[in-house]
Write a structure and sequence with these properties.
- The chain is rod-shaped, with a radius of gyration of 21 Å.
- By secondary structure, it is mainly α.
Length: 98
Amino acid sequence: MLIAFFAFAILALISLVVPGGHELVMSTFNGGIAIGIPTALPAFVLLAILAIEINLSLFVFNLLPIPPLDGSRLVRNILPYNAMQMYDRIPIWVSYCS
């Protein structure tokens, strides 16, 4: 989340400071090509957009309630005691199946 936030801050800074930066960010986000701007800036904007997309995707994926991921710990904490005991046995079942 922190990397996605910094990439968003960079995009906001480019959008506010660079002349024509808002159009550059929006056209790059929509899949277009900005013409008349040095080639390093659109590449940097594209990298920032990809950093946001990849890091937010990994954040959401990590919240899935599958036992090795962090989402399983969140689910475990909201379960009643008996259900929590059954949920804690899931990794044992997985090790026997493989």
